[in-house]
Amino acid sequence: MKHSLLRILACPHCRGRLIPAKEQAAGADLVSGHLQCSGCSRHYPVENGIPRFVDPHNYADSFGFQWNVFSKTQLDSYSGVPISRGRLHATTGWDWSRMQGKKILDVGCGAGRFAEVALQSGAEVVGVDYSKAIDAAQSNLSGSPRFSAVQASIFELPFVPGSFDFVYCLGVLQHTPDPQQAFARLPEQAKNGGRIAVDVYPLLWTNLFWSKYWVRPFTKKMRSDRLLRLVQRAVPSLLQMSRRLAAIPLLGRKLKYLVPVVNYESVYALSEQQLQEWAVLDTFDMLSPEHDHPKSESTVRRWLAEASLADIEVFRTGHVIGRGTKVR
């Protein structure tokens, strides 16, 4: 943990200033020890250079498991395909050529797929995750002096309000117990004039026919390692079935959702090996979460309006995307 991070960290319970105690440092970084709140005297451990503000086990455990198993799969630098870059830029709509020296908060950073892209802009990026995925992000991105990792809950973010120029949260809100309250915690992290962007799964009547919603009530109760083994065995056959359905003229694009597997063929320019790896990863991803709450465009628009954001835009390109600007 970089000592400079202390300037914007605050106790998530009382907003008190945090002071390092019993620290062990490596150069300018704090590797282990704990942070003590000057207000309420709570202590928060620092492990592997990451300040941790949550219990080690929580509802996001399956994500922690998957991102440490597939820690590099969705990194553009690993896949060689700018999938994460394309999604981040399309979702935010920000001018990434003018980010030099700006502070960006990535809420629900996972293994760091979007943070890696954001760092390329010259910005300082703080990645937050509720799960042990934060360790994968730290491992992937610790080589950048402009990246900091924090393990914390979206409902209790441990930062001084108004610390960031930009805040984004992609692929996360629908997997929280209360997406509306999770979103409501984001605007307070932005400076006046700061920009906010989120995306969520769309609430559609056709979701009734999506096989993941039939299967997930059973698979989400399974142990993560057991479910992964099941997915790894099933994906080759399921992917073949999905491909056959997808090849049917006119209806194929919809029919493939009847098979509980993620099929990116003709979607991303991935090799056959990558298609298999991404299929295993994202099939596990759709079957394992404890929470999955898709939302409509009107609901996301209401969230942004109730947060008194300006320049509100809400639209759907696969995900429902919402973005706006914090005003005084």
Condensed summary:
By secondary structure, this protein is of the alpha/beta class. The chain has helices at residues 61-69, 76-79, 83-92, 113-119, 133-141, 179-184, 212-219, 224-246, 252-255, 272-287, 297-306, and strands at residues 18-26, 29-37, 43-47, 50-51, 103-107, 124-129, 147-151, 164-170, 190-200, 309-317, 319-326.
Task: Give the SSE map.
Layout: E1 18-26, E2 29-37, E3 43-47, E4 50-51, H1 61-69, H2 76-79, H3 83-92, E5 103-107, H4 113-119, E6 124-129, H5 133-141, E7 147-151, E8 164-170, H6 179-184, E9 190-200, H7 212-219, H8 224-246, H9 252-255, H10 272-287, H11 297-306, E10 309-317, E11 319-326
Parallel strand pairs: 5-6, 5-8, 6-7, 8-9
Antiparallel strand pairs: 1-2, 2-3, 3-4, 9-11, 10-11
Report on this model:
By secondary structure, this protein is α/β, with parallel strands linked by helices. 32% of the residues lie in helices and 23% in strands. It has a seven-stranded mixed beta sheet, with helices on both faces. It has a four-stranded antiparallel beta sheet with strand order 1-2-3-4. It starts with 17 loop residues before the first strand and ends with a strand.
Q: Which spans of ≥5 residues are poorly predicted at pLDDT below 50?
A: none
Q: Report the order of strands and helices.
A: EEEEHHHEHEHEEHEHHHHHEE
How large is the radius of gyration? 20 Å
* DSSP strand count: 11
| Helix count, DSSP H or I runs of 4 or more residues | 11
Largest sheet: 7 strands, mixed
Helix content: 25-40%
Question: What's the end-to-end separation, in Å?
Answer: 31 Å
Mean pLDDT over the residues: 95
Structural class: alpha/beta
As a percent range, the share of strand residues is: 15-25%
Strand order of the largest sheet: 7-6-5-8-9-11-10
Q: So what's the overall shape?
A: globular
